[in-house]
Write a structure and sequence with these properties.
Blueprint: H1 34-51, H2 55-59, H3 63-75, H4 94-103, H5 108-119, H6 123-128, H7 131-143, E1 148-151, E2 167-170, E3 176-187, E4 194-201, E5 205-212, E6 218-220, E7 234-245, E8 249-250, H8 256-292, E9 294-295, E10 298-299, H9 304-335, H10 343-351, H11 354-379, H12 389-397, H13 407-423, H14 429-441, H15 455-479, H16 487-517, H17 523-551, H18 554-568, H19 575-589
Helix pairs in contact: 1-4, 4-8, 5-8, 8-9, 8-11, 8-12, 9-10, 9-11, 9-16, 9-17, 9-19, 11-12, 11-13, 11-16, 13-16, 14-15, 15-16, 15-17, 16-17, 17-18, 17-19
Length: 594
């Protein structure tokens, strides 16, 4: 960058709570470059032309077909988006990575297989591998010649990954690490060539290793019989005096947690995109069925109750999609000027938005659960039949709330990470909280009349941020360093923060679209945004009232509730009319319309 050009101050992760953001400052789907559109089209053509016709084979665990599809994806470059060019990859941006993650979600089992390979299975080598390790493995991982798996979880250590029992001991001749232990729930284990394995050196130092399936002492168990994603391979990985060359140590001894946590953060980021992709497929199927199914002499898509469902499904997808690509844009902005070989710098840029990654994972997975649940309801009795797509979508969705750290763990991480950054002075949350308290002690100011587009929603989003700061501040004041033990409070705070990020992301995207395309063209997005913001503020109010009751009592509680009332008041809108209009358009087009 020229020294005469003033660089824009980098955005801090979590700063959305305390800063006003202009629509022009966020990245949206409508901002896709020609390269990103090409990746989207290539992936779409592949999944429609190759994956969709093979869903029956995939669901029956025909791993020959799955591996063939993986390698076809590799030929198209879909497995190498994150692999640097010097190692045979495409080295594209994170938006492209999200696009591929979204588009392959036409089938849950195949999406999990791809994610297990090109995501959590490859990222550790991309970001932590030595030059020798990268040259040895990445070119073959990029094409699918080698297939990867990620092995962290053990029978007695799930969310508490650092409690792993797998041990690694250096051999007497110093040439190998001898690994012993069992890893479970390992995606791709039935056909993986390379495993990213975590073990404690000498039973103490949590470390990471690249383990090949042909190394002595390496084997896998039988296939698990799962509730969903049944077409993906899931087995235990058995390590019995497994001999791993010392040069296959990944990263530093005792620093395995750095790899594990960074990879999980990346996984959360990409999982949100896959949930959006799966939800779009489910919505399309639900619309099609609602148009075909007739009751009382007309299609059920003409009934208000069904229209409500279809519209709400689309609205929630729109919110999640807006959040996910906004985050992808933030990450790309943070790393775009870095050398592709600066893997640690890139990781730092991604880690900056760890809060947003957790938000997207939780919100995306719960959005998808809502969408597929309503899909089953729209199908009625047929939704419960395995002969129709609703049953598979319903079963496949459920794992996403467990993958990459359970939603409960991520909910506690969201306020925890924000508080930690505030205490370190990395994010001025404490100053923002103090400013808010000063505002509460002052007389309410009359709102200036504003007749601009979505003015009421912009005011509501600003107030939602104040509610999040208020509740967080009250909880921190009461519990101080013991706040981390108050899990219900932390999860409640996280819900308020997530709704706020969703509201703002959707609002900014709609405003940006309306500015370029006009209000008439944006009318369905405007209706969706007004509906979503109104409903979200109602959810925030209920959650905040419960939090205040848990934090305070008596006169203090009444004072806090009065303060809350100042922020949560908003003018109701006719959400029934808005949803009806959206549903009519959905049925006219036959798919997601935003």
């Amino acid at each position: 960058m020229s020294s005469t050009v003033k660089a824009k101050a980098p955005v801090k992760g979590g700063s959305f709570l305390i800063e006003d953001v202009a629509p022009s400052e966020i990245f949206t789907v409508e901002d896709f470059s020609e390269e990103q559109k090409m990746i989207a089209q290539t992936t779409h053509d592949f999944v429609v032309g190759e994956v969709y016709p093979a869903i029956g084979e995939i669901e029956h665990k025909n791993f020959d077909v799955i591996v063939k599809l993986l390698r076809k994806a590799g030929e198209l470059g879909l497995l190498s988006v994150d692999v640097p060019e010097k190692y045979g990859g495409l080295g594209l941006d994170k938006v492209c990575s999200m696009i591929v993650g979204e588009k392959v979600a036409i089938n849950g089992s195949f999406a999990v297989t791809v994610g297990g390979h090109s995501g959590i299975g490859s990222w550790p080598i991309i970001y932590f591998g030595t030059e020798q390790q990268k040259r040895r493995y990445l070119p073959k991982l990029a094409t699918g010649e080698l297939i990867a798996a990620y092995a962290l979880t053990e029978p007695h250590s799930g969310s508490d990954a650092l409690a792993a029992k797998t041990r690694a001991v250096l051999s007497d001749d110093g040439k190998y690490y001898i690994l012993n232990g069992t890893k479970m729930w390992i995606t791709n284990a039935g056909f993986a060539d390379v495993f990213i394995v975590f073990a404690k050196v000498d039973g103490e130092k949590f470390s990471c290793f690249i383990v090949e399936k042909n190394f002595p002492g390496v084997s896998t168990g039988k296939e698990e019989h799962k509730m969903g994603i049944v077409g993906s391979s899931t087995r235990t990985l058995e390590l019995q005096d497994a001999r791993v060359p010392v040069e296959n140590l990944l990263g530093e001894i005792g620093r395995g947690h750095v790899i594990a946590f960074n990879v999980l953060n990346l996984g959360r980021f990409k999982l949100g995109a896959a949930c959006v992709g799966g939800a779009k497929v489910a919505l399309k199927e639900a619309i099609s069925y609602a148009l075909e199914r007739h009751q009382f002499g007309k299609p059920i898509a003409s009934f208000g109750a069904i229209r409500h469902k279809l519209a709400e499904m689309a609205i929630r997808i729109y919110a999640a999609e807006s959040m996910i690509y906004r985050t992808a844009g933030l990450i790309d902005d943070a790393v775009h000027s870095l050398d592709p070989d600066d893997s640690q710098g890139i990781l730092k840029g991604i880690e900056e938005f760890a809060v947003e990654c957790s938000i997207n994972k939780v919100y995306g997975s719960e959005m998808l659960d809502y969408v597929v649940d309503e899909m089953v309801q729209i199908y009625g009795g047929y939704g419960y039949s395995e002969e129709y797509p609703a049953a598979r979508a319903y079963r496949d969705s459920r794992i996403n709330r467990i993958f990459e750290g359970t939603n409960e763990i991520n909910r506690m991480l969201i306020p925890g990470m924000l508080m930690k950054r505030a205490m370190k002075g990395e994010l001025p949350l404490l100053q923002a909280s103090k400013k808010l308290m000063d505002e509460l002690l002052s007389m309410p100011m009359l709102e200036e009349f504003d007749d601009s587009l979505l003015a009421e929603e912009r005011r509501t989003v600003r107030n939602a941020k104040k509610v999040a700061l208020m509740i967080s501040g009250l909880a921190a004041q009461k519990y101080l360093d013991k706040l981390s033990e108050q899990q219900e409070l932390l999860m409640g705070i996280a819900d308020i923060i997530m709704e706020t990020f969703a509201m703002e992301s959707m609002l900014l995207r709609t405003l940006k679209y309306a500015q370029t395309q006009g209000e008439q063209e944006a009318r369905f997005r405007i209706a969706a945004t007004r509906t979503f913001v109104s409903d979200s503020m109602d959810k925030i109010e209920i959650k905040a009232r419960n939090m205040i009751a848990a934090i305070s009592e008596g006169d203090t509680m009444r004072t806090n509730l009065a303060a809350l009332k100042r922020f949560v008041k908003h003018t109701p809108i006719n959400t029934i009319e808005a949803r009806q209009a959206i549903a009519v358009k959905l049925c006219e087009v036959g798919r997601y319309i935003f």
